Amino acid sequence: MKKLLMVIGSILLTFEVFAQNLESKMDSLAMTLTGKGQPGFVVGVTKGNDVIFQKAYGQMNLDYQMPNSNQTTFNLASVSKHITAFAILKLEEEGKIDLDAPVHQYIPDLPDYGKEITVKHLIFHTSGLGSTDNVRLFAGISLEQPWTADDEFELIKSYRILNFNPGDEYLYSNAGYGLLAKIIENVSGQAYDAYVENELFAPLGMSNSFAYTRPGKTIPNRAVGYKKTDNGLERTITESESVAGGTNIFMSLEDMLVWGRHYFQPTLFSSEIRPRLESSTAKLVDGTELKYTYGLNLVDYKGIRLVSHSGGTMGFSAYFTWYPEHKMFVAVAANNQNISTATISRLVTETLLSEYFVEASLAENEDIELPVNQLRKFEGEFKMEDGMVLTFKEKEGKLFLLIPDAPEFELFASSPSKFYLKAFEAQTEFLIGSNGEVNELIWYQGGKSFPGKKDDGTLPVPAPDKDELLGNYFSTDLNAVYQITLKNDVPILVMPRTMKYYLGLENLPLEHIDGDRFKVEKLGEIYFTRDIRKNINGFVIKDVGRLRNISFEKTK
């Protein structure tokens, strides 16, 4: 027993030394990030039941030069999602919600999308619903104008374009979590803020945690959010948006640490909940396991299992991370949206857990050698759907990727038809036909797949006459008009003011790919549609990340 106590004492002493080292690093980082009299951040760490580090940096309000403290409340942005998911799990344990039930069972006035969407689809971002933050930008709705849960629901009802069939893919969607908040209200009979504050926070003694769900609702000790602009720091208008579910949980550092410790010794839920949070319980229709559970991402960072989620909104940034094998929790929140809370969180990991790191192999499989005659089958130019051309060339028994104005990148074979790169994270699979020829490939990068076809020398179909493209185009789902006009004799797509303000996108030239297909900066591919008389009658923006197949009809 004495020996065991000595070991435990040694471990605690080691973490105390690490914590002192962490404070030194955080103080140094804060000098860089917050400077003098600037907004800042808070960071806290728990190990088991012990708080081993907590500290606040910078100002919560620049007008009054009020410093951040352990009681200052920060908007957790999308970190809020796991709290919504936990509320759903609590209601499920009470027998009030069936996660496999259609959403219409709990929200009868939701539109019929032609495909059944379940509660689980909303939780795991597999519903196919377009993300409302993106819908607002493309609809020309400012992210800083007054916006309530009712506004959000009306937007969800009006935008009926599904990105894909429910369950087929994973694609992050804020709309899904807005609907989960509405389900919580309809099932519990309480407003969302009342439910999470009374049923989740109050029982844990978290008196400085709130859900901002009504314009003007008082949030005690609330930090003011800021962002960097060309003219310096600017206060953001965050009080106007009061949408719950996917954002707008405000929490102090002290309460963050209470919440983080509760994860390891839950009292609000049964002990059976935690394994569901830490394992890939959800699968797509094709059997692919998701690395997303109940508002949380599953990550392997240098051999250490993490359960985490990031958050970012106007003026704020946040990051929560649990380390199941080490019973450790890290919370970071900032009232400057330009501060990377993810970077701060990683610094904590590097400082406290580096001795457990295991460097992962760059390849899932061991490299294999392929004969030269096999490698030469993969040579040629492959044209991607967005018009980009990838060229592959065999040299001295190796296969290389050639990109204009870039060095040659060697590819490494992991199978007779699959290759990966060590220079950056990407893979390609060559599709070998029944005749042994290779005319197609699939490029994998950034969690997406991009098909390409070998250039057979066929000339592209000429572009439509410029005059055919010009005009106004209306999207029923966005309730917005876009214009295509000429600038320096080049067709351009005129974007809504919101796109210019938030993303710097204004007049975007149309670059011809083939026939009625064009490439547009930052938007990717758009293609024009035609009526039975072969006249252009609209266009479709194919894929902008969280929205796909946005259709417009030509009005004149």
Automatic annotation (TrEMBL):
Residues 35-338 form the Beta-lactamase-related domain. InterPro entries: AmpC-like, Beta-lactam-related. GO terms for molecular function: hydrolase activity. It comes from the Bacteria. This is Class A beta-lactamase-related serine hydrolase. Residues 1-19 form the signal peptide. Keywords: Hydrolase, Signal.
